[in-house]
Each structure stands twice: as C-alpha cells, then as structure tokens.
Amino acid sequence: MKKVISLLLAVVMLVATLGLFTACSSDQQVSADFKIGFIFLHDENSTYDKNFLEAAEAATAELGLKPEQVIFKTNIPEGNECYEAAADLADQGCNIVFANSFGHEPYMLKAAKEFPEVEFCHATGTMAHTENVPNFHNAFASIYEGRYLAGIAAGMKLNEMIESGKITADQAKMGYVGAYTYAEVVSGYTSFYLGAKSVCPSVTMEVQFTGSWYDEALEKEAATKLLSNNCVLISQHADSMGAPTACENAGVPNVSYNGSTQSACPNTFIISSRIDWAPYYKYIINQNLKGEAIAADWCEGFEVGSVKLTDINENVAAKGTKEAIEDAKAKLIAGEIHVFDTATFTVEGKKLDSYMADVDTDANYEKDTEVIADGYFHESEYRSAPYFDLQIDGITLLNSKF
Amino acid sequence: MKKLKNLYWSVLSGSAAHIIKRDDIVWWKAWGIRIISVLLALIVCGFVTVSLTDLNPIEMYITMAQGAMGTPRLVWNLFQNTAILLGVALAVTPAFKMKFWNIGAEGQILIGGLATATCMIFLGEKIPAPLLIPVMLVVSIISGALWAFVPAYFKTRFNSNETLFTLMMNYVAIQIVAYFTLEWSMPKGSGTPRTLEFGQLPVLFGQKYLINILIVVVLTVLVYIYLKYSKQGYEISVVGESEKTARYIGINVKKVVLRTMAISGALCGIVGFLLVAGTDHSLKSDTAGGRGFTAIMVSWLAKFNPIFMVLTSLLIVFLESGASKISEVYRLNSSFSDIITGIIIFFIIGCEFFINYKIKFNKKEEIVC
Question: Full-prediction pTM beyond 0.80?
Fold first, then answer.
C-alpha cells in the first residue's frame, strides 16, 4: 500500500513539476459536500495574512465554492491552539485544511496523523519531505526570484540617485529590516541585494533584525535606525506597516513585501514582491476533487503566477525600471540567469564551489545536502522552503542575536 | 455616622436618590442580581449586534454556544482551558487574599514552563518518563516559587511596591523565555520552538487533557481547604484584613508574606508545567497567553473562593471560545467578538456594585430634613 502511495506521489510530483497541473480542469465540478478550512496566524491587519486571506477568497470564488464551504479561522497562535483549530476543521467535515504560518507546522503534522482522510497543507514549512505522512504537504514559492526583481528596481533607483549627484557610488547603501536570522529571511534579503547589485555594482546593505514576525513598533524602530546609519533605500521582510511608514515619514524610497503599500506610502513606495497563493489553493482543491494526491512539497514561481510583482509606482521608481525587470524576468524563466549565481557573490572573499545546506530539519542543524552545482546555488529545489543561509560579502548584519 | 455618610452620597449623587452600603444580602438576592445583569448584558449585546451588523442576535448566541461546546472535542477544550485558567486563578488567590498584589503570574508560569522544558530537553533521553515527569514537576514548582519569592523578599525587606515589582518580573521572564526559544528553535534562528518529545504527560482513557483537568481539580480542593480550614489560611486572611491586627495577635507578617508568595509562585509553576508538558509540548514567550492577567479577574469575580472560581473561569473561557466562533462563522474581525465579551464582562463586574450597595430613592421628607 505504502509503495503504491509513494509511487502515486512520485508520479503526481513529476506531473506537477512539468507544470501540467496549470491546465487542470477549472470546469471540475465542486461537489456540495466539499469543504476547505483555512488557519491564519493573524487577521487582515497583518500584510502577511492579508495576502493569504485575499488569495483564499479569490481562489475559492473562482472555483465556485459557496461561502459555507470555506471556513476561515483567524488569529490562531503557533501552539496547541493550531492543532485544536485543525482538528475542529476536520470535525466540521473539511476535506482540506490549510495553515499559513511557519510555527503552525508541528501542530498541523499532529492533526494530519490523527485524521488520515483529510489533506493538511502547510505554507512555508520544511517537514513534509522528510516526514512521509501521505496527507501532510508543504508549499512555498520561489519568492527569491521575485525579490531579485524587486532588488533590480532598488538598484535602478540607487543609480538614479548617483547620476543626479544626490549620493556618490560609495554611499549607495540600502537598509533591510528582517524578522529572524534563519534561511527564509537570509534567502530573501540576499536575493534582494543581488538583484540591486546586478544593476548597481557598488551597492552595500545593512540588515537589522527584530526577532518578531509582526511588531509594528520594533519594525519602525529598526527602519529608523537604518535611516540614521545613512541608508538611502529600505526594504523589509516582516509583516507590519512599520518599515514602510518609517520610510514615508523620512521621505526615503521603500521596496515593500507582501503587497502594495502605495496607498499608505505614495511618495516612497517603489514596488513590492509577493507570493500569490491562489494558484496553490486552486491546485490543492482540484487535486482533491479529482481524487488525486497533492504534492508533498510544492514550489512554483512566475510561470504559474505564484510569484508576483505589484505595479511600479512611477512617481518614485527610476526610469526604465519596468523594462529592466521584464528583461530579467524573461531571463530567469529561460534559465539564462540564476539568482544565486556563484560568480556574482563571495563569502569571506572567496567564490563558492560547494556548500552543504541544512535541508532536512533536525534538532542538531545538520548540514546534509550539497546545493551548489552548475555554477549556482540551487534554492528551493530540494525542498520548497528556502535554505540559503550564507552570509555573503557586501551585507552587514547589525544585530544577529535574533 | 452612617447617616452622615448617606447624606454625603445623596449630595454626591444628586438629591433624587442616594446610595447605601448593604450590610448583608441574602444569597438568592445576590444571585438574582447576577442573573439579571447577565440577561441585561445579552440584551445590550443584541442591540449592539443589530446596530453594527446584520446578524440575528439569538442566532449569534447559539453560534457562540456551539463554538464553546458544539462537539465533544470542543467540550474537552472548554474544560482544558478552564482548568488552566482556574489553575492560575488558584495560584494568585492566596496572595490576593493577603492583599499582596501579585501581577506576576504570567512570569511565574513562564519560569515554571521554562524549568519543565529544560528538563524535557536535557534529561529527556537520559531518564525514563515515570521518573522524568516527577522531576519536571518538582523543578517547575521550585522555579515558580523562587521567581515569586524575589518580589516578596524585597517587599518584606525594603517595603518595595509589589505590584510594580511583580509586573516587571513578567518582562524579565518573557525575555528569558524568548532567549531560550530562539536558542532552541528549529530550524536554527527561526524563533519557532521545537517540539519536546520526551516527558509529555500521559494520555488517560484516550483523553489527552484529562490529566491536566484532574490535577487542577485536586489543586482546587487543596487550595480551598488550605485557605478555609488551615491555620496558615487563617493567617493569610488576618494579614489581608489588617496587618496591624495580625502583628498584634502575634502573627509573623513577614513570614506569612514570604510563604504565601512562594505558594502562589509554586502553583503558577505547576500551571507552566501543565502547559508545556501536558498541552503545548513546546515553549515560547506567549505560552502563558495572558492568563496571568485574566486570572486576576477570575479570582476577584469569585471573591477569592476557589469553588466559585470554577464558575468564573468557565464563564470567561466559554465567552472566549464562543467569540472566536463568531468571527469564524460570520467572517467578522475579532474586534467584534471582543466587544461582545467586553460588554458581558462589564455587566457581570458592574453588578457587584448593586450587590454591595443599594440605591435608595429619596422621599420628600428626607430632602426637607
């Protein structure tokens, strides 16, 4: 039985990677007793959760699900409450339960083991590819590519400042507000930096961590600190409006995340990258309706619309930003360029030929997988969640206690 | 004297009515007032609901009840959450009865939880569960007691303000736990706590929370007996009523304060143990989840009586779980359910005024005199 399941899973994953699922029937009839439940860490006040909520609403509406077939549980902490929420959704007859926060994972896994007939899908997690629980799945998107493109917009802006004499090439220093020091954040700020560096070679960056995913005051404070260190452009990977607001107050350009912050920051917002979860939602619902297995570890990018860039704020962005981004995007899709090309960065002054990453999560943080091949770091290929955790030259961490 | 006081109140509240302290109130009157206040609260909530949303208030109350106890799982959750909140309320009660304002339960729980988690991580693989669990329990009791002992010591030695001191100790505890959460997080640096595999409390009769509930039931009975029938419990009441009287009749006030706070902290330590080993199987800085503060309300509402606290903690947990069901079913922002629970709690606390005081409407001749 296990063999059959794993074979089935392998076939489905193959199909998924081939991108065939995009063609999967949108004419799939949704049966009246189908239900899907969503667990969100916060509510729409968090930019992170808002992004998930809106995608869930859009995807379920598009597939023609009625309101009573879709259950939202908001403000579910990353604790036993998550397990109880997942179990309650299963009790309510949900065929699929989805949770959106990294720390929900162990509790989702626990529920998955208890309810083998229900599919449990977890965004941003790392355990599905090693746990082998057939109804437990992880998903992410190759957001590092989106951040790379957003970084290009930042680099273009820096070039504009240099050309206009506002700053010298040496003063092209960006600031970045990050939540925690682990791979998801490291991968995010490094890809952003490399994007900027690809157009503005003299750029440097400082990173200030907050030790929290959602703390408006701390994020604002971190951004303010970066500004006082003479950073001329700020980006962030944390979920509140703290950093964008600090930028708007100081009149410093901001590259945002999770969605557009243009309405609140009209004079400083340049562009934002975000993950669109709707393609994944549609995929899991369709697979379930067809009675087919859901990939254990799903990661997609531009091709299926999982990674998106918001509209560019032309009032702030440098001229030619749109064209530069389109050009780089086409090259990324074609495989002509790679975000973590080892020719474009050094670690302690050296180019890397080999790196063992901690892909399989374990308590000893064991480095287990070789991830550099063909001249680039293979991000999100051995599992969906990012594992790029190198400290590259040009980026300074102001505090790494978090 | 009493007349003067009444006159004062009648001036204060205008001449139409005045407020008199009730000397005593028969139990059925008191409960009558409480029931009426709950009904009034429900009516007011109904008006608020109709004016702010297009929901039917009756349906909303049914949804609330379903959210709190609609399935066997939810009923167990209700009992589990009630047990934990009750446990914290039991912990703060001895200190409160002594008029020692222990606002530090949150921190004491976390320190107890930290002690438990430390044992689970470092001793987990080394000693078998039947031995490990008692060790965890003892260590968390000692840690909680020590954490609470510090402000009590400063109070008795330097007469420091215990409210501020215990409150500050919460922040210290939160930061310490946050540090270790990060240190032990998995994956490294993510801030997400690892699951503690060893030393989880056993599942009794297929019910994972039963052991937590049973422990708190035992604690409730013990605290009730301790406060009501033991010599130490009596000393606590005397110190709470009047420190001078206590000193006059030969009670060592300092000793009582230190001992009672240690007990308070020890009980919080047990709750931390239950949360980490019996419920979450992990530790992070919001493991206590604000219960250290909510428990103060539970304890006060029950007038420091452990048996009544069962009801008050049940009420608060019922409202909380019902409220989250409202936001789930009607897709409303959680602020709305917070408003509803806020109104209900306001009425319940407010009705105590009418139990302690009565309003007397002035007759004409009284105004003349």
Answer: yes
